[in-house]
Amino acid sequence: MDAIQVMNLTFSYDGQNDVIKDVSFSIPKGSYTTIIGHNGSGKSTIAKLLIGLLPAKSGEIRILGKTLNEESVYELRNHVGIVFQNPDNQFIGSTVADDIAFGLENHCVPQEEMQAIIESSAKKVGMMEYLDSEPTKLSGGQKQRVAIAGILAIEPEIILFDESTSMLDPQGKASINAQIKQLHTQKDRTILSITHDMEEVAQSDFVIVLKDGEVAMTGSPMEIFAHAKEMEEMKLDIPFALKFSKELIKEKITDQPVCTLEEVVKQLCQLKSTT
Ligand SMILES: Nc1ncnc2c1ncn2[C@@H]1O[C@H](COP(=O)(O)OP(=O)(O)OP(=O)(O)O)[C@@H](O)[C@H]1O
């Protein structure tokens, strides 16, 4: 079954100019999909449509097979967790621990299990020593970490990340991406991540490229990155590992392009063992 189905979705903020234009895509359950696109291509608008924060002008969204509408929206939100780029409006608790606890209470997690879950999710995002801090007094990156901890604690079936690691330093980003990947592989959660981070895109199963409110391309990361000209026209980069891999091919060291560092290392290790 598909976790998310978007069919001929159109949306306009002012009732006249469509910023999402007849968009259709399906996201299989348990997959890790990334959405990329230039600034203003409609990525965040799609995220808001998917959780019913904005009403579609036409078209249909199905979450876990159920049509998203005014009646189903609250029930469906129990299955979908979202972390926004700017989590300021998402905090409810007066401390980091309270905030994570609030999500757990909403999901009816027994009181006696809460403390352990709060601590383990805060630890995963490197925020253990901030459990008693006020979320509003944290830095942008720390706020993003707390918002992600809230999601890691609940582990909803579908998780939407809207540029939710954009304020993290490179190491923080890599470590959170590893946590997200783990949630996907070990817990079989469906991940949909809006991102500018091409290293993250390389790690995903499937990529949707938006251009001016339309789906410009879909495919595996390698299929998308193969469209170098279109990517450049949309001002989208390719991952460092793929650039490196292309240099290795130019130097006739390897012959297959790959887009993650792990794959480059694997190729080089295989070469070493055969020489
Ligand atoms: N609240 C709003 N009111 C009116 N227009 C809006 C609003 N929010 C976004 N837009 C417009 O809708 C279009 C899509 O914006 P959106 O924020 O979805 O793009 P995005 O791909 O997420 O961009 P970015 O990468 O810069 O975050 C843009 O043309 C933007 O100007």
Automatic annotation (TrEMBL):
Location (main, coarse): membrane
Compartment(s): Cell membrane
Keyword terms: ATP-binding, Cell membrane, Hydrolase, Membrane, Nucleotide-binding, Translocase, Transport
Membrane topology of the entry: Peripheral membrane protein
A molecular-function term among this protein's GO annotations: ATPase-coupled transmembrane transporter activity
Database matches in Gene3D superfamilies: P-loop containing nucleotide triphosphate hydrolases
Domain (ABC transporter) ranges: 4-237
Pfam families: ABC_tran
EC number: 3.6.3.-
Keyword Nucleotide-binding: yes
Annotated InterPro entries: AAA+_ATPase (IPR003593), ABC_transporter-like_ATP-bd (IPR003439), ABC_transporter-like_CS (IPR017871), ABC_transpr_CbiO/EcfA_su (IPR015856), ECF_ABC_transporter_ATP-bd (IPR050095), EcfA_1 (IPR030947), P-loop_NTPase (IPR027417)
GO CC entries: ATP-binding cassette (ABC) transporter complex
Family in the record: Belongs to the ABC transporter superfamily.
Protein's UniProt name: Cobalt import ATP-binding protein CbiO 2
Species of provenance: Faecalicoccus pleomorphus
